[in-house]
Amino acid sequence: MKLIQSVSSLRDFLSEVRANGQTVGLVPTMGALHAGHESLVRRSVSENDVTVVSVFLNPTQFNDPKDLERYPRTLEADCELLATAGADVVFAPTVAEVYPEPDTRTFSYPPTDSVMEGAFRPGHFNGVCQVVSKLFNFVMPDRAYFGEKDYQQIAVIRRMVADLGFKLTIVPCPVIREESGLAMSSRNTLLTDAERQTAAAIYQTLKESVTYAKSHGVEETRQWVVDTINAVEGLEVQYYNIVDGDSLADVTTWDAAPHIVGCVTVFCGSTPIRLIDHIRYV
User: Fold this and answer.
1) Catalytic residue among 37, 216, 259, 278
2) Average pLDDT score, the chain
């Protein structure tokens, strides 16, 4: 496995790969890798000749400097996991390498990027589009792999790919969960053991809401989820939206769209740590 830190070295390596007619898969990450990331890498390894994993903590998608400051940084451990998973290249650039000049580009794909995370984290998805578009240009992958835990992010990236005309396939991959049901996330490492157990109530409530929804309307279901999670000591819902699974616009009836998804963000613990999850209804 190669560790590459410059764009020029990465492009030189990949030009040889393409000259040999080999396919390239990309798994973009911000590091602090876990079994969820590993599943993306193994999927890419199984479907491509060469797999590139980027490990880059992108500052432009953090609207809260404190959140960026406390995000875990574990490159050595990340490389060990990636070698085991079969990655061919770890691309771990510096901020100056990715942004030799400030990136002033703006991306706007409402309502997909303006609701939920877009509303509560201004500028977040603009930063996501900035860095992912750069990675796509650096790597020029045939396929790019993203975890469905970040459901809204995938929807926004699909819009960006269509807008900018990237010739690649976005491959969404299932959420990997801890034994308790908690969606795996790099942020989980910031939780105490007790907080991790408390956070398991998020997905448990989402699962129960699917049954609840069979005999209740959209707004009743939304409010039930919020009230049920908020009743757990140590958890506080920031938002719970039930939306069209493609556009992410709110729905008011269960037959309003072919795919309907509930997306939640919950604060957990005294710090607090911000956790996201989702559930499919239709």
Assistant:
1) 37
2) 97
pLDDT average, residue stretch 161-169 = 98
pLDDT at 110: 96
Spans of all domains in the chain: 2-173, 186-277
The answer to whether the predicted template modeling score (pTM) of the entire model surpasses 0.85 is yes
Is residue 216 among the annotated active site residues?
A: no
Fold that domain 2-173 belongs to in CATH: Rossmann fold (3.40.50)
Q: Are 245 and 261 within 8 A, CB to CB?
A: yes
Burial class (CB in 10 A: 0-12, 13-18, 19+), 238: middle
pLDDT in tens, 199-232: 999 999 999 999 999 999 999 999 999 999 999 9
Other residues' Cβ atoms within 10 Å of the Cβ of residue 57:
19
CATH of domain 186-277: 3.30.1300.10
